[in-house]
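Onboarding guide, step 5: your first structure request.
Type a short instruction followed by the sequence, for example:

Predict the 3D structure of this protein.
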Amino acid sequence: MQFNFESDTPIYIQVAEQIKDAILSGAFPEETQIPSTTEVSVTYKINPATALRGVTLLVDAGILYKKRGVGIFVQKGAAEKILNQRKDAFYNGYIIRLLEEAKKLHISRQEIIRMIEEEITDGSGH
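The system replies with C-alpha cells like these:
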C-alpha cells in the first residue's frame, strides 16, 4: 500500500481503495484474513483510527466482515461486487461523458467506434 498524503482524497478512502485493489488483484482472496488495522497503521505510519475508518467503510459495504476476536476477512463475492461497482463508475464517469461530448462535437457513433478501435489496435493516440 502507498498513500498520497498530498492528495485531496482522505487517507481512510485511500486505505479502502487500496484494499479493494488488493482484493481485485488476488492479493487478498475471498474468505481470507487481511492485515489488522494496527498492522496497517504501524507499517504505513498512519493513525490507527484512520486505518479503522477505511476498513469500516468496507465492512459497511459488505466487502469485508469481522470475526470477533479473530480479525477481518474478505467477504465471499467481494471481488465481483467491487468489479461491478467499478464498471458502473466507469460507465457513468467516462462513457456517459464521452457520449455527451461526442454529441456536442457532432461525432457519429461510427467515428467513436473507429477512434476506439484505432487506439486499441495501435495505441498511438493523438
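Each response can be followed by summary notes, for example: The first strand starts at residue 64 and ends at 67.
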